[in-house]
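re: that complex we talked abt at group meeting.

here r the seqs, copy pasted straight from the sheet so there may be weird spacing, ignore it
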Amino acid sequence: EIVKRCRGKNLHFSNFIKENIEKADMIFISVNTPTKEKGLGAGKASNLKWVEACARQVAKYSSRHTIVVEKSTLPVRTAEVIKSILDSSQEEILNNNENKKKSFDVLSNPEFLSEGTAIKDLLYPDRVLIGGDNQRAINLLSNIYLKWVPKDKIIETNIWSSELAKLTANAFLAQRISSINSIGALCEATGADVREVSRAIGSDSRIGSKFLDAGPGFGGSCFKKDILNLVYLCEYFGLKEVADYWHEVVKLNTWHQKRISKLIVKKLFGTLTNKKIVILGFAFKNNTNDTRESAAIQICKDLIDEGAILFIHDPKVDPKQISLDLGISPIKNINQEYKNDFNKGIWHFAENISEAFIGSDAVLILTEWDQYKDINWFEVSKLMRKPSWVFDARSIINPTSMKNTNINFWRIGEGLLNEDNIFF
Ligand code: UGA
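got the structure back, here u go
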């Protein structure tokens, strides 16, 4: 809707790179910065090849004073790299005795939008962060935001603080999730309930109530990548203990995903061979079709390795994407009496949830889609094979709806008081 409203007025799309760079006063670099797959820093450092390519094009085609804004999430001190590429173009001009008058300012203006709520986050941001060393350039960028953002929400810092604040914000958010998931595991072991613990600690205004929902582990394209980037930076600057500290946030997340698949195997008598498990949700969170780093990927792979027959449902994710993520193609046209003669795990894309439940041994909820909140478990229990299990890794089911169903019900972070967990 926003694009429709603005296109052709103050929003234009073009692939005439040279002409548009020449005319621009301000250029935002908003390209991908994925984790490097090979070479120095592989697996942790960011791959800056696209940022560098952009800087080179800006250096080549700009014709006057240009403000270059880093919008992509970047390791600290990337502005220096951009600046040196831009400055070297000035040297070239001088060496070639060309008459062009170009100069540059580099600003950092990181993005804090979340998927699924990006437009709301853009219109009503908690803050806008602008890092730079030239006040005039900072003011020019601020003026754009001031059209809809109150002045007190615009934070000005030096360029390195701004770059580091972006990585730190994501690291802190991810750390909260690993923290609450770790406490969830302890709740399960001790008879406490992680929802009650979250509510109790979240009402302390110093802690705050957001981002305290235990789940199957954080996913998305940013948290893991940004923390690993932070870890790499700390290692680079010789801060091993700091690097180790942040690395644990990612390690705990991986351990937690494995914990869920192991727990399912254990509850289903130690084997999943030929057992049918319905997976509800594959996206890394609701209201998006994005599966990057989704906890569902690792958990489903583990269940398939154990020989399970998975019926995977997601209202938005394309089955082709699930194939790519799991690295195996689905079995099509499967019927309810399907016998898994291969003795190895398989998966099928479930278009219709009600049909998928027929003959299933377990249901596992991995994404908190609204439509899963209204499932009539009493009716579902009649379709499942006994003993049947529901594993709610998102804590979206109201436990009272499980009463009188004969379903064994497990919720993330809910401990049951029994003799096993009385330790004194
Ligand atoms: C995240 C940040 O929230 C944004 O501020 C940031 O701009 C963005 O990364 C980015 O750097 O691009 P996003 O990846 O869209 O946004 O997703 P989040 O809403 O942060 O959720 C991340 C993961 O944490 C999801 O898997 C979600 O299910 C999980 N989560 C979140 C929990 O398990 N519990 C919670 O309480 C909250």
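couple things i noticed - The CA atoms of residues 309 and 345 lie 6 Å apart. The pocket of uridine-5'-diphosphate-glucuronic acid is lined by residues 73, 111-115, 170, 173, 177, 211-213, 215, 218-220, 222-223, 284-285 (CB under 6 Å).
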